[in-house]
Amino acid sequence: MADDQQPVNRKTSVIEHGPAWITAIVGVISLLTGIFWGKATSSESAATTVTQTITETVTERAQASGSAPAATGTPQANSSSLFYSGDVAFEQCTVGGFSLDWNPPRFLDGKNLETGCGSRDLRAEDNTPYVLAEWTTQSEPSRDDCRKQVDEKGKSSTGKLVVGSYICGRTPEGRDFRGRVKGVPEDVSARLVVAFEVYNK
After folding, report:
1. pTM more than 0.70
2. What domain of life does the UniProt record list for this protein's source (predicted)?
3. Is residue 141 assigned to a domain?
C-alpha cells in the first residue's frame, strides 16, 4: 500500500451479504420448528392407545370317521374372569366333542364333553371327569349358583335339554362353566348348540 492511500474503514451491513444471511436465518427457523414439531408429535403419539379386536372361528376334524363339531367365539384375555365365551355346536352320531379346557374349545381325544346319537343331552366322554348339573329353575344362574349346583347335584351327564335351559359344570382341570342351550336337534343331522361361558380357575 502506498503512503498516499489510506485504508478505508467501511462498515458492512447484513443486506450487503444478502443470500448467505437469509439462508442462515431460514436454517435456524427450520431447526427450531423441527424441534418443537418433534416434541408435539411424540407427546401426541405417547397418549394414543391402539385397540384391536380378534375374532376367531375354528372348525376341528376328528381323526376317526366323521367330523368334529364347530366352536365359534371370542378367545378371552386371561386377565378377565372369563377363559372362553362362545357357541359350541355338538354334532350327533359322529366321533367328536369338545374339551372346554382349551381356548377356543377343540376336540381332544379322551377329554371331551359330547352328545349322543339322537339324544338331547350332554355327557362326559368315557372316563373324563367333567361334572354336570342342569339348572332347574327359570332364573339365570350366576357363576356362584352354578358352582353350588355342581357341588350338590353334579354327575357325568345332563337330562334331555330344551332351548333356553342352563347347564352348570366343571372341567377336568377345575374350570367352572355355564351354558345356555340355543338349539336342540330335531333329527340326527342337526346339532345341539350351547353358548358357553368358561371361567378362569
Report:
1. no
2. Bacteria
3. yes
Residue with cell 342342569: 134
Omega before residue 104 within 30° of 0, cis: yes
Query: Cell triple for residue 37?
Result: 414439531
- Containing structural domain, residue 22: 15-42
Same domain, 81 and 177: yes
What is the spatial distance between Cα 48 and Cα 93, in angstroms, rounded to a whole number?
52
Cα–Cα distance measured from residue 129 to residue 113, given in angstroms and rounded to the nearest whole number: 10
Q: How far apart are CA 120 and CA 106, in angstroms?
A: 20
> Which pLDDT score, from 0 to 100, does residue 146 have?
96
**Does residue 102 sit in the same domain as residue 141?**
yes
Instruction: Answer whether residue 114 shows pLDDT above 50.
Output: yes
Which sign does the torsion angle of CA 126, 127, 130, 136 carry?
positive
Cell numbers representing residue 128 in the block:
373324563
The per-residue pLDDT for range 133-154, each reduced to its tens digit, is 999 998 999 999 999 999 999 9
Bridge partners (DSSP) of residue 191 are: 91
